[in-house]
Amino acid sequence: MASIEELRTERKKKRDILKDFGMDPYPVTSKRTHALSLLKEDFDTYANEGTELHVAGRIMSIREHGNVTFFDLFDGTEEIQVVIKQDEIDNTELYELFADAVDTGDFVDVEGTAFYTKTEQASILLKSWQILSKSIRPIPDQFHGLEDKETRLRKRYLDILMNNEVRDMVEKRALFWKSIRSFLEENDFLEVQTPVLETTPGGADARPFASYHNALDMEVFLRISAGELRQKKLLVAGFDKVFEIGRIFRNEGISPEHAQDYVQMEFYWGYADHTDGMKFVERLYKHVAQETFGTLEFQIGDHAVDLGSEWKQYDYAETIQEITGINIESTTIEEIQSFLASKGVTLAESEKNHVRATDRLWKFCRKQISGPGFLVNVPKELSPLAKTQSGSEAVVAQFQPLIAGSEVGKGYSELNNPDEQAKRFTAQEELRVAGDDEAQRFAHDFVEALEYGMPPACGFGVSERLFSFLMDLPIREAQIFPLLRPEQL
Known about the structure:
Layout: H1 4-21, H2 36-41, H3 43-49, E1 53-65, E2 68-74, E3 79-85, H4 92-101, E4 107-116, E5 122-133, H5 149-154, H6 156-162, H7 164-186, E6 190-191, E7 197-198, E8 210-213, E9 218-222, H8 228-236, E10 241-249, E11 261-270, H9 274-293, E12 297-300, E13 303-306, E14 312-315, H10 316-324, H11 333-342, H12 354-366, E15 373-376, E16 398-403, E17 406-407, E18 410-413, H13 418-433, H14 444-451, E19 457-463, H15 465-471
Parallel strand pairs: 3-5, 6-10, 14-15
Antiparallel strand pairs: 1-2, 1-4, 2-3, 4-5, 7-9, 8-9, 10-11, 11-19, 12-13, 15-16, 16-17, 16-18, 18-19
Helix pairs in contact: 6-7, 7-9, 11-12, 13-14
């Protein structure tokens, strides 16, 4: 088998053949008049009328039978067979040039007419052709494709080209976000854009990526939420329904559920509370699932999930006690650590405080819950930006959709008391000093904005984790171009 360098050398020679013939291997213009998907929709009409067609695309395979050559052309919308007959082509030199200089992977313009072969296969009878882009590297074999997972992710463009399931994922991903956007707009939410660079990263418990702003001579951070604090400032400014869909960045560990660079949607809804939010989010998720996948029933790992069934509510403390026997109000870090160790879970040094240890305990428990449902009554110290429940100072007015053993979103009645918000930020700063680098920073400008007054509101965010779950894929395989270490050359 020839090496890749030998194949590249051979294809460069063929590129020179095209040049010597007077054909630019990379012309500016294509003569394409018909996308193949539209052509196929009304193929009988084109075949009956003998209309001259100009189609274009990438050659996916070539087959030769005597004086007849067949190749499959793919333009990103559809694939069609093209037939070259030596006695039908306008210029016999083009027939020989095709044989001498064209390979699978090349892009070509094709002029011809629609017809059916003897086997009733819709085809194009070629009259003339023009190279559009000469490929120097061969594309993978259509039958075997890219078999190594790391190579598939690293050369994602080839994986998409050769694998219809991956192409379908990319298209569904676009539909997923489109359906979220349209649902929010139909419910009178205004789409906004907030900065990605922040001086104080806020809106989540996460470790940020740090950078430096040369022009302003200061440290900045890539945002860890979709503009939560700024969107709430827009509620202060008088808007009552706003949302943003954008990229966020968290400098954290990699897992099947966690990426560091991903898309998230957050909305903020003035004069609504967490109970309004739960009803709205249930409607949103059903809408998105139906629009994107055409069903409400999913098999996600070992979990069978029917979004059309009753959405139950799971009390944080009660669920933990039911699954583990631990009462989180009276437990110790040692008891939590001992239980988790018995399940093969080890606490990092930064997690050896009551807040983080309890959170790890919950993350063990949630794996037992298929959902759909909502996690409710979360302890106040775990959610620094949420209001406490009416009649209780211990738990917040928060909800998190539970699907297939994980939270896929978070919402709550937003804290709008500036004094209480300042106290929460101070408690978070104390955690940071103690070594918890995911604890939130004190956002002084946000507290100042709250002092001008913000209406009661419900906020909610969901990331592409939901999409990856519904696809039943690890999150990086549900991304178009996941981040990978550079390939060692």
